[in-house]
């Protein structure tokens, strides 16, 4: 900072322009340290008392106190200045600087606090993401372990056991369905004509077999399945039907009691080879068959059993109470056939396909 040449006090930077400056030595003086008046009244080439030339002896210009003091002493004496005025200016500048510095420090602290809060939030979010990644890794590891366990079970045959359980459940459902048909019989190869009465037909068939069947013993009687256009013989009346005619739909009869069904089935076995003659039909006589009504699964299985028995020359193949039995000869044991696997086990041959049965 610049010092005053008169009082040797530091001059604030903002007050330098208000002070007198020597054009030769560039020394700055407070205005109140000189008696020459305001600086604006001095010429641009003003010289301080130390650089100003001494006046001639002949001149009678009264010397100023400052000039006499400079001339009498080699050192410039310290001028008496107004201490209150100097201190007030310096104090004002210092206080202003302190206020500005305090404001800057406060703003800096506020910004630093905000930065700390943002850093804490960032750390918290990073910790949450880390925990989430850790939980995801644990879940993935658990899933990998479960997949490995399932693959191991499949390799060890767990899948085969499940398939066996499913097959057993299907078999039980089929047996339940078969129990619902325990009072049903099925008359096949009976010629089908327009306007026929199924109730009259089953009563006529029972009478031909020697069973005294009444309408009160029959719950229902109807043809089942899609009607084949070749089921009737050529001609409108159906006369002349023979072996070349198409196969008619089966006549399904539901009886009221199991005993009536068993009586009808026994009579059908005794009078095997009965035909549709004397039933009041215009078609040519055909052999008729009375059997137990089977579920679709059992019907297909029975077809496969008959094919396997025919190839292996087994004599006895029959159904009783919805179950399928096979016997090779008169004195051989009978076998209960429940699944296609039993066919291969009993007959020793692969079962045939029965998709159209």
Automatic annotation (TrEMBL):
<feature type="domain" description="FP protein C-terminal">
    <location>
        <begin position="295"/>
        <end position="345"/>
    </location>
</feature>
<feature type="region of interest" description="Disordered">
    <location>
        <begin position="229"/>
        <end position="248"/>
    </location>
</feature>
<dbReference type="InterPro" id="IPR013083">
    <property type="entry name" value="Znf_RING/FYVE/PHD"/>
</dbReference>
<protein>
    <recommendedName>
        <fullName>FP protein C-terminal domain-containing protein</fullName>
    </recommendedName>
</protein>
<dbReference type="InterPro" id="IPR011011">
    <property type="entry name" value="Znf_FYVE_PHD"/>
</dbReference>
<dbReference type="Pfam" id="PF25298">
    <property type="entry name" value="Baculo_FP_2nd"/>
</dbReference>
<dbReference type="InterPro" id="IPR057251">
    <property type="entry name" value="FP_C"/>
</dbReference>
């Amino acid at each position: 900072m610049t010092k005053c040449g008169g009082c040797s006090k530091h001059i604030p930077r903002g007050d330098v322009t208000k002070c007198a400056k020597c054009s030769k030595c560039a020394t700055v003086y407070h205005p109140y340290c000189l008696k020459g008046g305001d600086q604006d009244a001095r010429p641009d080439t003003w010289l301080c008392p130390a650089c100003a030339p001494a006046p001639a002896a002949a001149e009678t210009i009264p010397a100023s106190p400052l000039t006499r003091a400079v001339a009498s002493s080699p050192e410039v004496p310290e001028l008496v200045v107004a201490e209150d005025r100097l201190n007030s200016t310096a104090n004002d500048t210092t206080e202003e600087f302190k206020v500005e510095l305090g404001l800057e420090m406060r703003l800096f602290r506020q910004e630093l606090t905000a930065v700390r809060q943002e850093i804490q939030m960032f750390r918290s979010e990073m910790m949450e993401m880390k925990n989430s990644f850790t939980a995801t890794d644990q879940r993935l590891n658990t899933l990998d372990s479960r997949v490995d366990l399932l693959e191991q079970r499949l390799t060890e045959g767990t899948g085969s056991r499940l398939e066996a359980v499913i097959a057993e459940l299907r078999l039980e459902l089929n047996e339940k369905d078969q129990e619902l048909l325990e009072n049903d019989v099925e008359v096949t190869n009976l010629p089908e004509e327009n306007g026929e009465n199924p109730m009259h037909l089953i009563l006529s068939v029972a009478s031909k077999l020697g069973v005294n069947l009444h309408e009160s013993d029959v719950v229902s009687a109807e043809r089942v399945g899609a009607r084949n256009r070749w089921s009737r013989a050529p001609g409108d009346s159906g006369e002349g039907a023979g072996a070349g005619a198409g196969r008619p739909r089966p006549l399904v009869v539901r009886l009221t009691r199991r005993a009536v069904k068993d009586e009808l089935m026994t009579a059908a076995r005794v009078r095997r080879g009965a035909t549709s003659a004397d039933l009041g039909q215009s078609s040519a006589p055909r052999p008729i068959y009375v059997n137990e009504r089977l579920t679709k699964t059992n019907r297909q299985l029975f077809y496969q059993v008959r094919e396997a028995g025919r190839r292996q020359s087994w004599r006895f193949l029959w159904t009783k109470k919805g179950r399928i039995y096979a016997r090779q000869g008169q004195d051989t044991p009978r076998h209960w056939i429940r699944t296609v696997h039993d066919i291969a086990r009993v007959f020793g041959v692969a079962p045939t396909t029965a998709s159209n049965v």
